[in-house]
């Protein structure tokens, strides 16, 4: 069987682009830019879009266009997977294309779910795991497109930075502006998961649904995990300790919300700070920020997976109850 | 050298707050050590061990992130 000789040509394109980047970065006309890092997302339009009576004004913040795009991507992926799977169900039951890829992913995740939750509750818990994971994955990966958090409009402010004008565009330089004509950069687009609203919203949904699934599987006896008065009258001292441990569980649920929100926010924010500062330090050698972006890719995938998997494990723990009661019986039989 | 003492104190506090991340690093190293030892003895339990290791790492890392939250609160003048 004769095959054509492989001619790898893409590597030469990458090498040429790297050399061009070196030369352009080394030109003294382009100076290193001041990194623009803010904790909260910036407003694009000064006037609020609409104002609700109790909650307050809603502004158009620079994380809202990427959020709309993320939701659109998830819906498009779901639509094409559905179409591919119904087509293959109609013809010969062999999945192809997008359906094939998604079936492989979902089988891997579903086996992991079954291992942690048991086969009975896996169909209930698995949609939460997979949805949260894909949503956060697309939000994290979208942040890596060049131009996010770097291209924006300049707003004049008294304590801003000096600016180097280059024709139609301007470059923000490090330092403080001397005569009060400084500028501050407001990026057009910012990664969605760097906004605390996004992460806290998903964390609240995750923890709230954990409680709902606990009630769904165990009935209202699920709340005996928190107000543990069952062993209080059998064994007085250990019963009182169990009651206090149960009260601590409530605090643990709240700390889960904070931990979920800040884990995702912190990892993505650290990536933003790292990319911005490395890009500003090494203006001449312009390859290194791409290595940092590669690391960001890895961290984004891992964080999405950890978010989904922790949701799944907490829901699995909520379905299993009264495990420690059997341990107490074993202790007393000695 | 000019500047505000409050700003200087904020920077020093943010740096001191991140010392707590050392404990998270040691904790993650210990849990991965246990998981790798278990996987080496019993390669069949790979999936189970991996799941529990990832869970343990996420809990350890949350403590480091609590330290980072305090550092951010100080750096970005929220408190």
The run of helices and strands of chain B is HHH
Look at the structure and give the CATH class of the domain at 18-72 in chain B: Mainly Alpha
Give me the side-by-side strand order of the main sheet of chain A: 1-2
> Which consecutive residue ranges of chain A, at least 5 long each, have pLDDT under 50?
324-334
Report the sheet-strand fraction of chain A. Answer: 5-15%
Give a verbal description of the structure:
- The complex is a heterodimer of chains A (334) and B (79).
- Chain A is mainly alpha-helical.
- Chain A has a domain at 62-151 and 191-324.
- In chain A, 59% of the residues lie in helices and 8% in strands.
- Chain A contains eight helices and six strands.
- Chain B has 79 residues and is an all-alpha fold.
- In chain B, helix 1 runs antiparallel to helix 3 (46-75) and helix 2 (21-41) runs antiparallel to helix 3.
- The model of chain B has no long low-confidence stretch (mean pLDDT 87).
- The A-B interface holds A 38-39, 111-112, 115-116, 259, 262-263, 266-267, 269-270, 305-306, 309-310, 313 and B 47-48, 51, 54-55, 57-58, 61-62, 65-66, 68-69, 72, 76, 78.
Set down the secondary structure blueprint.
The complex is a heterodimer of chains A (334) and B (79).
Chain A: H1 10-26, E1 50-52, E2 56-58, H2 64-90, H3 97-117, H4 122-142, E3 152-157, E4 163-166, E5 169-172, E6 182-187, H5 196-218, H6 236-281, H7 288-319, H8 323-333
Antiparallel strand pairs in A: 1-2, 3-6, 4-5
Helix pairs in contact in A: 2-3, 2-4, 3-4, 4-7, 5-6, 5-7, 6-7
Chain B: H1 5-17, H2 21-41, H3 46-75
Give a quick set of tags describing it.
heterodimer; A: mainly alpha; two-stranded antiparallel ribbon; 6 strands; 8% strand; globular; B: 79 residues; F1FO ATP Synthase; rod-shaped
Concise account of the structure shown:
Chain A is mainly α. Chain A has helices at residues 10-26, 64-90, 97-117, 122-142, 196-218, 236-281, 288-319, 323-333, and strands spanning 50-52, 56-58, 152-157, 163-166, 169-172, 182-187.
């Amino acid at each position: 069987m004769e095959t054509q000789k492989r001619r790898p040509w893409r590597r030469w394109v990458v090498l040429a682009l790297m050399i061009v980047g070196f030369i352009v970065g080394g030109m003294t006309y382009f100076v290193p830019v001041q990194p623009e890092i803010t904790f909260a997302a910036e407003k694009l339009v000064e006037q609020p879009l609409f104002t609700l009576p109790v909650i307050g004004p809603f502004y158009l913040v620079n994380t809202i266009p990427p959020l709309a795009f993320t939701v659109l991507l998830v819906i498009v992926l779901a639509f094409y997977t559905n179409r591919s799977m119904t087509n293959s169900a109609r013809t010969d039951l062999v999945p192809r294309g997008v359906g094939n890829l998604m079936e492989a992913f979902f089988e891997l995740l579903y086996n992991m779910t079954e291992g942690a939750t048991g086969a009975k509750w896996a169909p209930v818990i698995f949609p939460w795991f997979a949805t949260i994971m894909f949503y956060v994955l697309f939000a994290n990966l979208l942040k890596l497109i060049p131009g996010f958090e770097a291209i924006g409009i300049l707003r004049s402010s008294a304590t801003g930075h000096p600016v180097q004008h280059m024709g139609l565009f301007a470059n923000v330089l490090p330092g403080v502006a001397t005569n009060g004509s400084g500028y501050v950069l407001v990026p057009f687009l910012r990664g969605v998961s760097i906004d605390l609203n996004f992460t806290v919203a998903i964390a609240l949904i995750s923890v709230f649904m954990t409680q709902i699934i606990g009630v769904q599987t165990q009935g209202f006896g699920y709340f005996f995990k928190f107000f543990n008065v069952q062993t209080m009258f059998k064994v007085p001292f250990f019963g009182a300790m169990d009651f206090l441990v149960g009260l601590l569980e409530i605090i643990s649920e709240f700390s889960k919300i904070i931990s979920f929100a800040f884990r995702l926010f912190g990892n993505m924010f650290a990536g933003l700070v790292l990319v911005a500062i490395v890009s500003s330090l090494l203006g001449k050698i312009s390859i290194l920020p791409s290595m940092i972006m590669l690391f960001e890719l890895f961290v984004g995938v891992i964080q999405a997976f950890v978010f989904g998997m922790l949701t799944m494990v907490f829901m699995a723990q909520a379905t299993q109850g009264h495990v420690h009661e059997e341990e107490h019986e074993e202790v007393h039989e000695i | 050298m000019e500047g505000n003492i409050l700003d200087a104190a904020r920077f020093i506090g943010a740096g001191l707050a991140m010392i707590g991340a050392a404990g998270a690093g040691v904790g993650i190293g210990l849990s991965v050590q246990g998981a790798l030892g278990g996987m080496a003895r019993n390669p069949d339990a790979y999936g189970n061990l991996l799941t529990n290791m990832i869970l343990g790492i996420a809990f350890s890392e949350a403590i480091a992130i609590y330290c980072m939250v305090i550092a951010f609160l100080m750096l970005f003048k929220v408190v």
